[in-house]
Amino acid sequence: MGRLVLRRLGATVPVLILVTAGVFALLHLTPGDPIDVMMAESVDATVKENLRRELGLDRPLYVQYAAWMGRLLRGDLGRSIRNGEPVIESVSRRLRPSLELALLAMTVSLVIAVPVGLLCAVRRNTPIDRAGATFAVFGICMPNFLLALLLIFFFGVTLRWLPVSGYTDPLAEGWNGLRSLVLPAVTLGLALAAVVTRTLRSSVLEALTEDYVRTARAKGLSEWRVIRAHVLKNALIPVVTVLGLQLGTLIGGAVITEYVFALPGVGRLVVDAVFARDYPLVQGVVLLIAVGFILSNLVVDVLYGWIDPRIRSR
User: What's the pTM value of the predicted model, to 2 decimals?
Assistant: First the structure.
């Protein structure tokens, strides 16, 4: 298992280099100048040029990239062009709300998807299975912003059970903090639950046809014990793959949900930075998202070895 982890960590280095180079090139190819965004048109051109020189934006792109990578190797992500704040501080301040939202959304999805997916597989081609398929199609097809607005209208405006916007720290406020994350977590969790439900159903149906299941049934084990002890663990690998990929997406990609619910997360931060042409901040956030994906995939690889001893032995 240790060799597997080291091998995966070694493979992440070229991936991170490619990600940083690609993001750097795309940002500088985007129309617009951060100096023009920061300053009004009436500002003297000399002042703009001096600021551009001070920020190093007048240098060739390869020199800027090399300078940024040099700072990155020292643990310095640079400073925001807009406000001069260190990028690491801006990102760390916005990271916790996004992590809390991602973990809560993941919990919501698992609480819904595991029982629904199992029931749909065990009760195949029954009304329960058709209801589960309808839920999965609804969750996959429903846009996040539309589902968010429906939840706001029903639970926030009509019933007044939950706050419709803003963020309160759950560690400081307890239940009031969790209430501020319920609606956005359900918005993201339902979509993920739909994907996990379909994946788990297909995986369980495939596992039910294996020889070891027939052997367990021949020994006289009850159907639910067969499912719990033999089928479920062997059906988890595709589900773990989906969850690993989605966790990285939830951390950095919940942009629309964070905007609708006015959450101060990483997704909202990177959109604001793109509009402001804040190159160091965008690069820092994208690097963080890439690291999140890599770490989630590393956890998935480790879980593969725990779930399936054959993978661990290879």
Answer: 0.78
